[in-house]
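Lab notebook: predicted structure, single chain.

Context: the supervisor wants predicted structures on file for every construct in the current expression panel, including those that have not yet been purified. This is the next one on the list. No modifications to the sequence; it matches the entry in the shared construct table.
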Amino acid sequence: MEGSIIWPQVCAVRSTSDDNEFGKVPQWLYPTDTLSLLGANRENHRRQRRQLNHAFSTAALHEQEHIIMKYADQFISELTARVKGGEALNIVDWINYTTFDIIGDLCFADCFHSLDGDTSFVHNAFIGTIGTAYSRFLTQFPLLKAPLMLTLGSEEVNVALEAGKRNANLGRLKGKARMAMGAEPKDGRRDFATYMLREGKNGERVLSDDEVQALSGILVLAGSETTGTALAGFAYLIARNGDKKRVLQDEIRAAFTDEADINITNTARLEYMNAVIEETMRMYPPASTQTPRVSPGAQIEGLWLPRGTLIHHYSRATYRNPQNFTDPDMFQPERWLSPDHPRYNPRFAHDRKEVFRPFSAGARDCVGKNLAYAEMRVLASRLMYRFDIEVLPGQDDWIDTQRSTLIMLKPGLQVRLKVQPGLSLD
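Prediction complete. Output recorded below exactly as produced.
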């Protein structure tokens, strides 16, 4: 279903009971979906969301800001070390290592040590997510298992399926280990688990052990992979559009005289950076598809959708629709600028920006969207402040040739970085 229809008429509809909600398909991705925000019914979703809203509040975000800054420093340090050696590098890997380490620390007060060289969790997470997609496909169409094995190769499919099982178990085990440490295990520091383990007014835990474990796995993947995908798309698109890159670099370097000043609060004021991030997610949606909604039995656009009808949405189709956006296949951050910005272009004044919902819409939108924006702004600003970035030849179709399962299947992106004149290599 097209975004101009699904957002206001399905996702944003305020239901009064499970009977009239366009809920999500139970167990669409994992058997434990109904225990987490992914597939919980209306009542349980509201209870879980109320508990997690505290973890993702503005106050909590600023309380944990030093965690994001720590890994941003390490990210830039690792890239700088490779620039010294003059080597090209796969920027996708380094972005993923950073976003996974950040979310691990924010969730469990303990990172995955990917930037330190242990990349096993990140690697398994991506293979496992593909395996989850295969598993979902085979559940829906069991008779197609043989053709799938023949087309992709039985070894590839089996490896992915096993990785998917490990993914689910690792998330639960990580959550279980964190639960054993108590609500505030490290000198009173609060992480996401702190809020999940809090008691209600009656003195009892709001979320059960099973719910905490299920949510732990979802928060890790949703809080790392999608942010990493958006940042990889940012690196590709800004490097490929030199005029936009220069405008962005000028904005960042005019705003900051020292890298240490690049933080969550200050980067939120960068108008062109915000426009570039929005345009990146329009051109290259991190969540290309979402868990389908289920019709409770309702009329949409004059068509009756019987109870149980699955409603799918594919972001790219909406965001590249010329009825929604002028020059939809062109990277134009200017479309997101306010009329008082010097680079505002009235050519984009009639773009239907209301259909752009990279974090979904309504009561079941992404709880971590503010964290995602903050993380993207800080990491992208640090990258562009220190380096000039160039995509190596032979990758012109890096975005357009990618497949999507539950995530974008990103190949490596080989880039060359140059430290900006006047900046130290230390």
